[in-house]
Amino acid sequence: MISKKMESALNAQINKELYSAYLYLAMSADSADKGFPGMSHWFKKQYHEELEHAEKIFDYLIQQNARASLEAIEKPTASFNGPLDSFENALKHEKLVTASIYALVDLAQAEKDHASHSFLQWFVDEQVEEEANALDVVTKLKMIGDGNSGVVYLDGKLGKRGDD
Ligand code: FEO
Fold this sequence. Notes:
Elements: H1 4-33, H2 37-63, H3 83-110, H4 114-144, H5 148-158
């Protein structure tokens, strides 16, 4: 059993996770369009991860006999100014998601909702990985700078995400 306030906050988080999925799918399309198939693949994998995040919360609400409700998903930005801009935006977005997860943890604590608090710990850990993954690519792209061959090489590496 969870409070109505927690139910509503978790539903808002489902929407944020689905928006994240939509944003990464837009980044996947834009990367493909700009000639970076590896990055397109990387963002598509990320899109799938975000769908799983939304589903986890959806399933938790149902398990708690609460109501999962789906709101409209905002239209994401469709075009970015190249790979560095895409990944910098991905990192910025993940920081927002982390803040949102922390707010949920704060609410669970305030309500002494131990079940939701425990459930949310998976997301706290996941956000560390999410930010690190995006930062890793941003750092590499900054090191490469304007070197086209470096970007092509990195694109090939990112195209292998999920193969290991
Ligand atoms: Fe579901 Fe990328 O946070």
